[in-house]
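QA checklist item 7 of 12: single-chain prediction sanity check.
[x] sequence parsed
[x] length recorded as 362
[x] structure emitted
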Amino acid sequence: MKSDLNEKLLLFFFSKIKGLGSGTLWSLIKSYGSCQALYQAARENDPLLGSRLTQLIQQPQRNKNFQTTVKKEFDQIQENYLTILDDDYPRLLQKIYDPPLFLFYRGQTKILKNQSLTVVGSRKITNYHQSATEKIIQQLSPAPLTIASGLAIGIDALSHQAALKNNLPTVAVLGSGLSETVLYPQTNIQLARKIIENNGLLLSEHPSHTRPELHHFPRRNRILAGLSKITIVISGALKSGTLITAQVALDENREVYALPGNINMTLSLGPNSLIANGANILLSANSILEAYNFNNKTSSPKIKFNNLLEKKIYDLIQIEPLTLEQLSQKLKLSLMEINISISQLEIQGILKINQFNQIEII
């Protein structure tokens, strides 16, 4: 249904009633068919509504100051918004236990029509987690997917950047309002602008100038999990916001895929724990594409080596990143011989040197 202004005002009115949760309210609106019908039922003491809910709704109805304050607050909304009553509101998000009644936005809501994939991870990034994130999103680029994440420093920002690089639409869900004076984190304002400029979307359930608060972020995570059929967990400690998002996804009967990692890496403990407890193991983008019923499986392009040494180097680097000295020792060749081949593979965009001075596959 498409909500008119009166329906939106009533929805906003209901949302301000303490004790009336969004999940309960949405169920009531669906049962009665509209906010107006629910409002009228409360005024007429409809026995099907129940005495407690009737009292919750009737009390602010009779409070003129409350009504005036709510109407004034509603009239002051400056941000574009969707309501749960609108056709463009994401259908999967409607189905969670406590869906947001209002979604304030900047950008293109049409990308919400695509199927979404939520990507979450830690604020700290290891070289392994960075390369895995970039590779998986690059492999997903042929598919009509929207990449959803939280704009936070770390894997979130990296996911948005990888989506932009590969011409995938991306949506950032914030724990603050959308005004740049309060947008969190401030270090990612340029990224937020770039998302909008590239036909992406910023979303928040908070009005424009709402400052970030600690309790906003677990609530934000339920939106991230609710937007998508699948959430992929790249990295995270055992107790982290990343795992909260994964747990919400599991609670809502959504699929979770986790990237396996080194058991000695703190940031792999979260994903490894999820896998141990039944989450899907994320080995490549193909499993994600299959889960979304996209038939265009990806495959790595066949690499043309100039000589046998380049192939030997590539095969060793596939096992683990190595320094130039380690390669020299394993292949029993001089640094100069190794370095020439490495340079050729770098030029071809096959290998790169990471922050630890190791050679790794791109």
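[x] summary fact logged: Residues 104 and 360 are 42 Å apart (CA to CA).
[ ] second reviewer sign-off
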